[in-house]
Input
Amino acid sequence: MDYVDVCRNHGGEDAMMAMLEDGRVARPPFAPPFLKAGRHLIGQTANILRFLGEHHGLAPGDERGRLWTQQLQLTIADLVAEVHDTHHPIASSLYYEDQKREAKRRAADLRGRRLPKFLGYFERVLVRNSRGANCLVAGRLTYADLSLFQVVAGLRYAFPNAMRALEAQSPAVIRLHDRIRERPRIAAYLGSARRLPFNEEGIFRHYPELDAGR
Amino acid sequence: MRYELYYWPGIQGRGEFVRLALEEAVWTTSTCAGTTAARTQ
Output
């Protein structure tokens, strides 16, 4: 069992566009990412993660636990959308340069109100976990833990000054990030060429004018 | 079986959440505290 990141290979992006535009697909994804798994074509990040989690030991076996894991993942998706909207507050179809003033206001609100609210929520979830604060769901690793790692890594890249202040209020979240980073397979991935660097084309972008002052 | 991930080249973006799960779990089953337990295949 393995996977291929299709668009990293020559001709991959053309293949992706062809699949998105293929009129014969009865249940087409709306946008990337999507995953082809045998006869399944699965879209929406949280939906793909649910599938992988249930087939590869990254989700609980009971329905209550699976619903809770997906609830946390969807909350992360909300946060990711809000982070995206800091650099594209008016429209995704416009350049950042065309919405910089609005971006500055939106980013200030994210830093001052929304990030404390989201990170505070995940901190409470960890602290209230009756099986300990090592992971979000019971005593096992789930895809939600991996995603929370990515959120912390991304926020540190995008808003380093704001995060320095926020991290002290969410110590369990930061400890979870640090533990995930050190997992053997994750550490190997992060140190490999497969892990792309953060940049100003993605969701977590570092524009100094959108971060807090030092 | 080989999974095929389709996502924009050159960025982490939303695809990165999927990549992390693929890297961690398509190869291994895992527990939270420990490291790797056993191969899934």
